[in-house]
Amino acid sequence: MRWVLMSERELRRVEVLQAVQAGRQTVTSAAEALGISRRQAQRLAKAYRSDGAAGLRHKGRGRRSNRALSAALRELAMSLVRERYADFGPTLAAEMLREHHQLAVSRETLRGWMSAAGLWLSRRQRRSVHQPRLRREGLGELVQIDGSEHRWFEDRAAPCTLLVFIDDATGRLMQLRFVASESAFSDFAALEDRPAALPWRQPIMTTGRESDMVTGPHPRGLVLRAAVRGSRRRGRPASAARARARAGPRPPASRPRIPPGAAVLRGDGIGIRLS
């Protein structure tokens, strides 16, 4: 028994031509069903009668393309890519080969060669899988802050933001508040005016807006600070950040006593004491 590799279009032709050979369908109706001319249908029917399903396969399947580049050119291009452009993408590597080595290779051809050699991974292959974070164990251990800007009151008032405090362990809504806009100061005010009946008087950690806002226990009370994640994100010059990194950590300085409810601007953000 011999297996024949065929495409879906060729399999469709086999089904129709079987009906023609069995007398259940005419050549004219077969041509209309396949979307070809009557003379082409007659040629296919003749090939099917003589060679069977194998006669309907494309004659170029399995053969090398007439426009394929030579193996010597491929070896030369890949040797240059391995030696000089191993960390380049296919587009830039093709430009370098054309400008500096006079090798005209399209970027898609070079992409296939680099993928076969293991020098290039597709975007799907480069995608990293992030493991889901486990929920915290206790109520109030981690409270997440998020805001949803919407026209909550329709045309009766201006658009505003609904500020939501969500407990990570239980998914419980700890507090809801309408504010003009989501900002650090609106978070400060919501934390300062929270009801005393809520069990999270001093959470271990609070996050908001993709970890831009972080809270934690403080020797003088609960402090909410805007965490600075990278110098470029806050518009600071990269050279200044590198200079501070070379200088090393600053010596600890004595902190003045922070009165309750006072907001303090510090080097690493804005803090407010709530208790």
Question: What does the model show?
Answer:
With 275 residues, the protein is of the alpha+beta class. It folds into three domains: 8-56; 71-122; 142-236 and 256-272, no CATH class. The chain has nine helices and eight strands. The protein has helices spanning 8-21, 27-34, 38-51, 71-84, 90-100, 107-117, 123-126, 184-192, 238-247, and strands at residues 142-150, 160-167, 173-179, 205-208, 213-218, 221-226, 263-266, 269-272. It has a six-stranded mixed β-sheet, with helices on one face. Strand 5 (213-218) and strand 6 (221-226) form a beta hairpin. Helix 1 (8-21) packs antiparallel against helix 2 (27-34), helix 1 (8-21) crosses helix 3 and helix 2 crosses helix 3. The protein is flat and about 90 Å long. Residues 230-268 are annotated as: Disordered. Pfam families: HTH_29.
Describe the SSE topology.
Elements (H helix, E strand, L loop, with lengths): L7 H14 L5 H8 L3 H14 L19 H14 L5 H11 L6 H11 L5 H4 L15 E9 L9 E8 L5 E7 L4 H9 L12 E4 L4 E6 L2 E6 L11 H10 L15 E4 L2 E4 L3
Parallel strand pairs: 1-4
Antiparallel strand pairs: 1-2, 2-3, 4-5, 5-6, 7-8
Helix pairs in contact: 1-2, 1-3, 2-3, 5-6
